[in-house]
Amino acid sequence: MGLPALGLLGFLGPVGWGAAAVVGGVILITVVKKNREEKQWISPGTQQCFDDERTLYKKEKSNEASGETGNASKKREEPCRHDEHDDDIIKGYGLGYVGTYKDDKKFRPSRCDKDNEGITEADHIPPKDCLKKALNDVRMDRLLQVNPRLHEMIMSLVYDPTGQKLLTMRVLYQDHRDALTTGSSKESKICRWLLTQTILSGKYDCAVKMLKQAFIMGHPIASQMLRYDAGFVDAALRTDGKVDMSDEGTRNYYRYGYTDLVDEYLYKGIINKNQAQDLKIWVKKEMHLDRDTPEYKEILEDINDLYD
């Protein structure tokens, strides 16, 4: 008849307790290591798509025990579907994640793995610069009457000048670089100026129009379209990044992120429920990529006027 566990340890004395501690420590280390491995972000180069073949190859080192010698050989494994690859990147890096700039810094992939440095950025939507320019404008008094919550968000920059508590969306580095809301080019500056004017227009739906414009200007593909339509053919080329993403994948994670941004602005009271519902439909239909919307046409017109 066996002894109970505690009785057995007591019977064995200090040696028994020491052995149990060692075993327990090994188990704990194994569990912690496993959890860390499960939470690892996808590092660059985990998969590679080879042009039209779309086949995933893995290099296997030569192994004398298996009878193979010489250089590493390539082995065909399985089709590398671009949509599956994009999904892995989106999930692995948390693309489209919406939160404050401060929160994004806490959970960005580079904190888990230094190899992920420079892959993602937190994009303020709308950009912080256009809010700062509205801060000291006399029309802010009118905005206070029309949309006090939007007024409050802008005034928060007085005590939070770096926008730590403003809403951001996590995007790929190259997508942030390509957005018309980023950079010092003339077309980027005119876009941010237009956003500021929309905010200060004093109209009831200024927040809705602000978000529509920001969704167009902040989207790398829409920005590419605008540059091309304005005649900047060379400037319409996309920026290279450490992680490749198809246009379809880019559209997907921006659509997810924009939908969450609408929810966040509804929660803050900057837009109402009906406006949020309409905006979600607008985003779902990808109207931010539609050349025929009044918002797209107005942005393009202002860019063209800049160079006329």
Give the topology, please.
Blueprint: H1 5-12, H2 14-38, E1 55-60, E2 73-79, H3 82-93, E3 98-100, H4 101-107, E4 120-124, H5 128-135, H6 140-146, H7 148-155, E5 167-172, H8 173-178, H9 186-199, H10 206-217, H11 220-229, H12 247-267, H13 273-284, H14 294-307
Antiparallel strand pairs: 1-2, 3-5, 4-5
Helix pairs in contact: 1-2, 3-12, 5-9, 6-7, 9-10, 9-14, 12-13
Structural class of the helix and strand makeup?
mainly alpha
Give the mean pLDDT.
77
Number of domains: 2
Kindly provide the radius of gyration, computed on alpha-carbon positions and rounded to a whole number of angstroms.
26 Å
Principal-axis shape:
globular
Strand residue percentage: 5-15%
H/E topology pattern: HHEEHEHEHHHEHHHHHHH
Strand order of the largest sheet: 3-5-4
Helix content class: 40-55%
Short description, anyone?
This protein has 14 helices and five strands. The protein has 308 residues and is mainly alpha-helical. Keywords: Membrane, Transmembrane, Transmembrane helix.
Please explain how this structure is put together:
The chain is mostly helical. The chain has helices at about 5-10, 15-40, 80-95, 100-105, 130-135, 140-145, 150-155, 175-180, 185-200, 205-215, 220-230, 245-265, 275-285, 295-305; strands at about 55-60, 75-80, 100, 120-125, 165-170. The longest helix is centred in the N-terminal third of the chain and has 25 residues, at about 15-40. Mean pLDDT is about 75; it is low at about 1-80. Keywords: Membrane, Transmembrane, Transmembrane helix.
